[in-house]
Amino acid sequence: MSIMAKVIERVLEKRHREYVDDAEKARKHMQERSLEEDEPYKIPKMIYHTKVESKDLFGCQIVTFNDNENSEYLVIYLHGGIYVNEIRLPHILFCDKLAKKINGSVFAPVYPLAPNHTYEESYEIVEKLYDYLLTMDKPVIIMGDSAGGGFSAAFCEYLATNDMPQPKNLILISPWVDVSMSGNYDEVEFDPMLGVDGLREMGKAWAGELDSKDYKISPLFGEVKKLPKTTLFVGTHEILYPDIVKFHDKLKDNCVDAELIVGKEMTHVYAVYPLMPEAKEALNHIVKTIKDYNK
């Protein structure tokens, strides 16, 4: 575990534990977020590796990276944030680096969030974006982190249920695959960022009238046999670790080409954070996975 990884763990513990480990505080956080949720996202002013733009597509603000006709790959990136928090700088920096390394175009929807919205609007937006990218005759990759990782997996199960084509790759970074948080998490050594009760509360808001165990919310309980090549990343220092291992095992049991990369003593979505050597290794692995599989 690198020094930078330890520093990030300490920062996360101070910023997130309160409202993700307590249902009442989670409800208060959602009330506060509801006041700003529908404000347009402003791209941070930085020096980027690619052209980073904000576009209005299919009724949704979408941040695009390296969107040009010469790109070799098309990536839909669904950001994490417990289905409540907006896309953040680490996501932007990660997508920018990914687009550069694969010479691809990355599309990151600023999709509608709870508590003002439920899953339904976001599914409609992502489906329209996916259909649009399929017409370009290039490899399409769907990926996401945390809630966005769960959304990515659930969306691919939705595609399978509706006999729609799968993407070439599904890449999941610490995916939230059981939004109901129904598992046994006692075996997790330590998680500086996430808790059970707060997550469960925010997950209910995203699910709306659906049961939190419906596959469109919690892909752990869905049909997986038609999913594409799937690569999963998880750290042993995260509450979601047992559920992600279960999901990987389910993929393997259903003969899906699946790979699980476990970061020892790594925290939630470690692959996305800048400046960590472990994150650099993870990004390089993702790039290699995309390039090697889609030759």
From TrEMBL:
UniProt keyword terms in alphabetical order: Hydrolase
Pfam families: Abhydrolase_3 (PF07859)
Keyword rRNA-binding found: no
Residues covered by the Alpha/beta hydrolase fold-3 domain: 75-271
Keyword match Hydrolase: yes
Protein name: Alpha/beta hydrolase
PANTHER family from the UniProt entry: AB HYDROLASE SUPERFAMILY PROTEIN C4A8.06C, ALPHA_BETA HYDROLASE FOLD-3 DOMAIN-CONTAINING PROTEIN-RELATED
GO molecular function, one term: hydrolase activity
InterPro entries: AB_hydrolase_3 (IPR013094), AB_hydrolase_fold (IPR029058), GDXG_lipolytic_enzyme (IPR050300)
Source organism (scientific name): Methanobrevibacter millerae
